[in-house]
Design goal:
Number of strands: 9
Number of domains: 1
Largest sheet: 9 strands, parallel
Order of helices and strands: HEHEHHEHHEHEEHEHEHEHH
Bound molecules: indole-3-glycerol phosphate
CATH superfamily: Aldolase class I
CATH topology: TIM Barrel
Number of helices: 12
Length: 264
């Protein structure tokens, strides 16, 4: 069992929802990234999604685009990101999933990427620009190294595709709440809730809902049919504004609200 599976099993046993916190590695700077990971865990984060900055982040809205530009200006490379991971592993055993675009990994060599990042303490990867149909070889490599390759479902996923992705999924399934890019916005989470309910017919893998979540209320709504919620832009925005404390307060509020909602 890897760290992700272990953590999700613990949450389930405790009747708690997970909170996955996305942080762009190196934005506004490396020290803030490391401190934010430490404090996010203390405030109730269950998993860290570490963004590996890329120059053309096509699935990202303005906040994470800006964070990526800043991180690249700070000279972030995969080699530096490995160092950050090793630093984090000195004080934390929280599950960490990378989020990046295939270009960087392909250039580095995908198998070498998996080996090196796993060795530095990463537990899996989210690669939004490789469709399921094209990811067979990547899946094989990840499975060989006990490294999670996140599968996606969205409101537009057909039942046939859902059956395929659910069958191949390990760790967690990323349930995208709407068809836009990342960023806080008003979302009707009952739509992805219905999709989650359908996915349960195909899999026992934990479901994590993300995209748009900017408040504790939105987290509760997103969690209704899921096992975890994912928050990115709302946290990253506060970090970029130099408001680490506010970012942590948001995570803390989400933890409280989700715990209270699970009592019912
Ligand atoms: O920023 P949001 O709307 O809270 O969404 C989560 C998201 O940031 C994180 O999971 C993520 C950041 N970049 C991505 C690209 C694709 C998929 C997911 C992501």
């Amino acid at each position: 069992m890897n760290r992700i599976e272990k953590r999700m099993a613990e949450l389930k046993a405790a009747n708690k929802k997970g909170i996955y916190v996305y942080i762009t590695c190196g934005a506004p700077d490396v020290a803030t990234t490391i401190e934010a990971v430490k404090q996010a865990e203390a405030n109730g984060a269950s998993l860290i999604e570490l963004g590996l900055p890329f120059s053309d982040p096509m699935a990202d809205g303005p906040v994470i685009q800006t964070a990526s530009v800043i991180a690249l200006k700070n000279q972030m490379t995969l080699a530096k990101e490995l160092e950050v991971l090793r630093e984090i592993r000195k004080f934390s055993d929280i599950p960490i999933v990378g989020m990046g675009y295939i270009n960087n990994m392909y250039h580095y060599g995908f198998e070498k990427f998996v080996k090196d990042f796993k060795e530095a303490g990463m537990d899996g990867i989210i690669v939004p620009d490789v469709p399921h149909e094209e990811s067979g070889e990547m899946r094989r490599i990840c499975a060989e190294h006990d490294f999670v390759l996140a599968e996606f479902i969205t409101p537009g996923t057909t039942e046939a595709r859902m059956a395929d992705t659910c069958q191949d999924a390990r760790g967690f399934i990323y349930c995208v709440s709407n068809n836009g890019v990342t960023g806080v916005k008003k979302v009707d989470y009952s739509v992805i809730g219905g999709v989650c309910e359908k996915a349960r017919k195909f899999t026992d893998t934990p479901l994590a809902v993300g995209f748009g979540i900017g408040s504790a209320e939105a987290a509760v709504a997103a969690a209704a049919h899921a096992d975890a919620v994912i928050v990115g832009s709302a946290v990253v925005k506060r970090l970029l504004d130099g408001k680490l404390d506010e970012a942590m307060q948001l995570i803390h509020d989400m933890r409280d609200a989700l715990d209270a909602s699970c009592l019912h």
